[in-house]
Each structure stands twice: as C-alpha cells, then as structure tokens.
Amino acid sequence: MPESNPSISLGHVLNQTQDINDRVEDAATSLSSVNETLKQNKQAKAPVQTIEAALVQNEETEHQVTKAASDLRQVNAQLAKEVAERVAIESELADMTVDLIETRKELSESYAREEETRQLAFQDSLTGLPNRLLFDQRLDHGLIQAKRHNSKLALMFIDIDKFKSINDSYGHDVGNNVLVMIANRLQAAVRGEDIVSRWGGDEFVCVLLEVKQGKDAFGVATMIREQIAKPFEIAEMVFSIRASIGIAIYPEDGETADSLFKNADRSMYEAKGIETGVMLACDCLRGK
Question: What gap in Å lies between CA 203 and CA 201, rounded to an integer?
Fold first, then answer.
C-alpha cells in the first residue's frame, strides 16, 4: 500500500478549513441580513407571512452555521492527526540523520583503523621504516621497472659495527635509541623514491633506483657511512657509530633479488676488513 504524502494531506485539510470558514462567513452575513429584515418588519408591522419567511430563512442559516461548526470540528481533528503524523515523521527523519552521522563516523574510524593496521603490517615497530615484507615488494617492483627501462639499481647491505657491545654496555633501551637515530639518518640521506628498510637486529638494507653506474652507488654509500658516523648524544652519552656497507648492482651483480642480496651481503663482510668500509660486489668478486 503506497504511503500518503503528508504535505498533500495537510494541504487538503487546510483547504477544507478555508472552505468551511467561507461557509460560516456567508452564513453570518445571511444571519445578519435576516436579523435586519426582522427588525424592519417588526417596526413596520409587516404581515405575518413576511415574518414567517424571514424566520424560516433564519432557521436555515442557523442550520448552516451548526453544520459548518460540526464540519470544522472534524476538520480540526483531522488536522491535529496530520500534524501529529508530520511531527512523528520529522522525528523519525531526525533520528535517521543522527544514525547516518554515527554510521559515517564509525565508517571513518573503521577506515582509520584499517589504515593503521595496514601500516603496522608493513612497518618495523621500532624505527617505522618499511619491514622486510614491504621492502621485498618494492624491490621486486624496482627490478621490474629496471628491466623494462633497461636501467640499473643498487642494493646496499648495511651492518652496524660492534653494535652488540653497545647493548651489552649500556642496555637495550640505549641500543634501540641508537638504531632509531641510524634509521633517521639513513632515511634522510637518500632520495624519496629510494627504499630504506631495517632488515633485522642492527642490519639495514637500501635500494637506490635508477643508478647510472657502480661508482655513483659507491659515492652514496660513502656519504651514508659519514652521516651515520657523526657523533650524537643519548642519555648524556656521546656515540660515534661505524658501519660496513656492501653494494650489488643490477644487472651486473645479479638479475634477481636473491642474487643481489647474496652478493651485497658478501661484499658487506668484505667491507669490514677495509678502511673505507664500503665494498662493491664487482670489486669483491675480483678480489680487490
């Protein structure tokens, strides 16, 4: 069954009310006219027939007024019902609006929680850097782009020298603060499109995209090592950290992520034995 339209119903009732008011007004005019006629006939001592005719008209007019009053009561009752329905509808709409606002708020909070969960799933909990899962995804994408555009990329494996002694001597809280400082310096040392990740413990990895040649990556690695080595203070203690960095270049040192990691890791261990602390995989393989 189709629902009634409250605005149409109210308009219909109001039109009825106006019609009744018009009828009452006409009846009142007629009654006044009859009363005036009766007065004039009384003064002029009009014939009985004339007076009786005026009384009949008066009775009909009174009947019209009574009927109009009855109709008006019915219309007023209907109007009160329509108004009550309108109030109920408006109240329901207001509740729906509140519910909609609450639903939108809950949905927004749900999206925020989902985004937070997604971020946590791809971030290292200590440093906020991309974790292994996200790093692997970005490295795979970088390799696809490098192959497609016939370009190079560099994978750097970075190990913090003698970090265990910091934990042993000053505790894990200080050690964690050192790792956070190193992570911040690594992130600041590379371009926005490059990728830095904490690989685990005191090891970090970095991918430099669109590298022209190995010596460019060597220069960036040297700069990173210098940035890490700058003294900084934690808990009123000054630290100067050294790092060893091994570098593998795509495609010369490997065309897959596994081969690049293997050669970068090997180069990093070789870098620990030289003063510069940075080793290219191609030099490592040649025994330099």
Answer: 6
Q: Tell me which CATH homologous superfamily contains domain 132-286.
A: Reverse transcriptase/Diguanylate cyclase domain (3.30.70.270)
Question: Could you please report the per-residue DSSP string of 89-127?
Answer: HHHHHHHHHHHHHHHHHHHHHHHHHHHHHHHHHHB-TTT
Count of CB atoms within 10 A of residue 257's CB? 17
Query: CA-to-CA distance for 280 and 157, rounded, in angstroms?
Result: 11
Q: Choosing from 202, 253, 258, 265, which is the catalytic residue? A: 202
**What is the model's pTM?**
0.61
Amino acid 273: pLDDT: 87
Element (H, E) at 202: none
Concerning whether 140 is annotated as a catalytic residue, the answer is no
For 6-120, CATH gives: 1.10.287
